[in-house]
TrEMBL record, chains A, B:
Enzyme class: oxidoreductase
Cofactor: Mn(2+); Mg(2+)
Site description Important for catalysis, residues in chain: 134, 185
Compartments reported by the entry: Cytoplasm
Descriptive protein name: 3-isopropylmalate dehydrogenase
Binding annotation for substrate: 93, 103, 127, 218
Lineage: Bacteria, Bacillati, Actinomycetota, Actinomycetes, Kitasatosporales
Family according to the record: Belongs to the isocitrate and isopropylmalate dehydrogenases family. LeuB type 2 subfamily.
Species this protein is from: Streptomyces cremeus
Amino acid sequence: SRSINLAVIPGDGIGREVVAQGLKVLNSVLPQDVKLETKEYDLGARRWHRTGETLPDAEMAALRQHNAILLGAIGDPSVPSGVLERGLLLKLRFAFDHYINLRPSKLFPNTSTPLAGRPEIDFVVVREGTEGPYTGNGGSLRTGTPAEVATEVSLNTAYGVERVVRDAFERAAARPRKKLTLVHKNNVLVYAGHLWKNTFDRVAAEYPSVTTDYLHVDAATIFFVTQPERFDVIVTDNLFGDILTDLAAAVSGGIGLAASGNINPTGEFPSMFEPVHGSAPDIAGQGKADPTATVLSVALLLRHLGHESEAARIEAAVSADLAERTASAVRTTDEIGDALAARVAG
Amino acid sequence: SRSINLAVIPGDGIGREVVAQGLKVLNSVLPQDVKLETKEYDLGARRWHRTGETLPDAEMAALRQHNAILLGAIGDPSVPSGVLERGLLLKLRFAFDHYINLRPSKLFPNTSTPLAGRPEIDFVVVREGTEGPYTGNGGSLRTGTPAEVATEVSLNTAYGVERVVRDAFERAAARPRKKLTLVHKNNVLVYAGHLWKNTFDRVAAEYPSVTTDYLHVDAATIFFVTQPERFDVIVTDNLFGDILTDLAAAVSGGIGLAASGNINPTGEFPSMFEPVHGSAPDIAGQGKADPTATVLSVALLLRHLGHESEAARIEAAVSADLAERTASAVRTTDEIGDALAARVAG
Ligand SMILES: CC(C)[C@H](C(=O)O)[C@@H](O)C(=O)O
Ligand SMILES: CC(C)[C@H](C(=O)O)[C@@H](O)C(=O)O
């Protein structure tokens, strides 16, 4: 499409700083004839403190009109745990049916990894985004007493599992190595595990070109550190995906480089792109945050909207920028943004 | 106690081989005046194929009479996923109220780690063993149809959480660094998370000497690879503990060294000790399995039964044995067992 109507949610902590750089790079990479409109939404900790609101209906309706959402980070220690996560971030993911939570991991040259021997890392996790233990279907009884019982229910539907599994097979089939690994814990979570594994096996029959594999989530964490090169595409549930993608980020350049897309592939709702790192309140406002994860999230956003060549240009720019980084020359958030914007300028 | 009546469940795959070495070392380390009786139980994949039984009541009752259980490994690809895990291994952990699943991680000198720079690793995970998503409280509706719904319920009780949290505080208070980290995901799993965090904070007030910390499970995986030295004792739920302890094993010498104890601290039921690695059917019967994790599990068993000096002797023997290992001189399962038995001989 020749115009992008983008919603921007800077959010909390370093969110504002990194989003500014993402927009800078976006403006720089877009060809003249693509009209970019942005509208900022004041959501997050400050808004909650001021008004008690996390995400009012009116804003929800307004957000829905956009082609996509760019989000910085949500969360602040001054807000009780769960309020903004459930009331804002997860609310968006669920209401806009972001059933694909796409999280690529790539160990770029010259970036840090805690792993000895710098293995080849280039995989993508397709994390389910709208089901599992994230549905908020829990409760507690006799809360705060010695007789308290608290539950969390993981909800899994054939509808929800099949669509994410199909999406992952499509992605695997389009990649050179064509390998898809299902990660679950079907030897313990037998009901959900059965649904995931059966669906996976059934859809696999339609993709004979894709090599498939299954790993329990505990075993998967082992391979993430001992043999990450074995992974190409991974499909997994919401919670396992949350855990695995932080580990993936840690081994492939750090959380400062991890991008993500919360995607609604049908296009019925706007998709939302965000760095995996959180609001990092300890370094907020100091110009220390690395905006690269946000810039890479902008690349995912552009790819989602059909601007493949611009997405690729951003990724190439990041790769080149990282290759030239030196430990001694530490740059500010703004300087990194400037450098990337300059590289992608058309 | 001056006599040990031990139940032995070799189980599947490499289970039999490694358990034999564990018993060899146990026999060697025990002083003359401690009488060791062992009784082997034929449980696991072969038994299931032969009789369809996983763990009959009569065997359950017999197992209960022992002072402790040594288990090799359970699981075989020929058995549907979940049958032996739920019907045997988890049945034992739940029926014998093994609410402390103790999993120490230590990076011994001269052992392999995928982490660059060989950080100091010496922590212990206290994994809850009888609640959480492991209770089997799930189900499925319209199974096998496009309208299937499958659930898994995580059950958490004040009773269950408090007892494991207290145990972890006791362990932390007894260690030099006195640090306890709670790992959960209380920003998403708010009901269970609330119970865990509140209990943790309340019990913490009784242990002013213990430094406390809280991490979301996703963030914890990052620190496991970037800063494992920050951990001393970790307390966490059944599923998070499962995932984290495999990752812990991977970074601290590999799954071949990871020991565990399924402990019922009240002594009402026998505790059970097992290597964290599984049955590894691909190398079973070849004398290739490293029995060290089983031998270290025997040390945990001895410590639990009050034989502290023998436990320490085994750990010192393992440490010395590992220090002398060379990549070129690969030993068989039996040879490693012999070497350790010789070292601990009193
Ligand atoms: C902040 C939190 C709700 C979120 C999640 O658990 O999904 C975060 O960890 C992530 O991975 O995007
Ligand atoms: C085999 C399986 C049921 C078990 C678990 O999930 O607890 C194993 O992974 C472990 O960690 O002991």
